[in-house]
Design brief:
With 165 residues, this protein is α+β, with helices and mostly antiparallel strands. It folds into two domains: 9-91; 100-160, no CATH class. Helices cover 31% and strands 24% of the residues. It has four helices and nine strands; from the N terminus they run βαββββαββαβαβ. The strands form three sheets. The chain has a four-stranded antiparallel β-sheet. Strands 1-5-4 form a three-stranded antiparallel β-sheet, covered by helices on one side. A two-stranded antiparallel ribbon has the order 2-3. The longest helix has 18 residues, at 74-91. The radius of gyration is 17 Å and the shape is globular. The termini are far apart.
Length: 165
């Protein structure tokens, strides 16, 4: 069952899929339709899941499940991963590459390899104040407060060594 994203509780479980490119507005509509069709039938051993999604910046697909309603099982997680792989194929994007790192300068979202991110840190093109996307957050509360943050407040801070005080 689909609920509005804002109605998910703060302890709802989140999965963030970062695209290697921005989706067009038309693709966002198409992907949203596909996600809603998937979520309408997304179950855990036959039981409904109270779920929602949001597409942020035309580049991040965020899925959420209210586990106080029904826990997510390994099979239901596997089905969502399989679904996201279908989205990858259908739209010619990479959503699964955890070695891609996203950061924001002004209104521009940049996706680079982890190696390039580290190189840009050394070249001072990325600083500890640069906004990064911490796709490792696991709850809606963390998504709301710790997803889009300065690098110093994320796992990315390890690349700054002693630069950060």
């Amino acid at each position: 069952m689909i609920v509005p994203f804002n109605n998910l509780p703060q302890n709802a479980r989140m999965w963030i899929y970062q695209s290697n490119r921005a989706f067009s507005d038309k693709e966002v509509v198409q992907i949203s339709e596909r996600i809603e069709t998937f979520m309408a039938t997304w179950k855990r051993h036959g039981d409904d899941l109270k779920s929602s999604y949001i597409i942020k910046y035309n580049q991040f697909i965020v899925l959420g499940v209210d586990e106080s309603f029904n826990d997510v099982s390994g099979c239901s997680i596997d089905s969502s991963v399989h679904f996201m792989k279908e989205i990858e194929k259908e739209f010619g994007v990479d959503l699964m590459n955890k070695m891609n790192t996203a950061f924001k300068i002004g209104e521009n979202i940049n996706i680079v390899s982890l190696a390039d991110f580290q190189k840009y840190v050394k070249e001072n093109k990325i600083t500890s104040d640069t906004l990064v996307f911490n796709n490792m957050v696991q709850t809606k509360a963390d998504f709301d407060t710790k997803w889009e943050v300065p690098a110093v407040q994320s796992w990315h801070k390890r690349f700054f060594g002693t630069v950060i005080s």
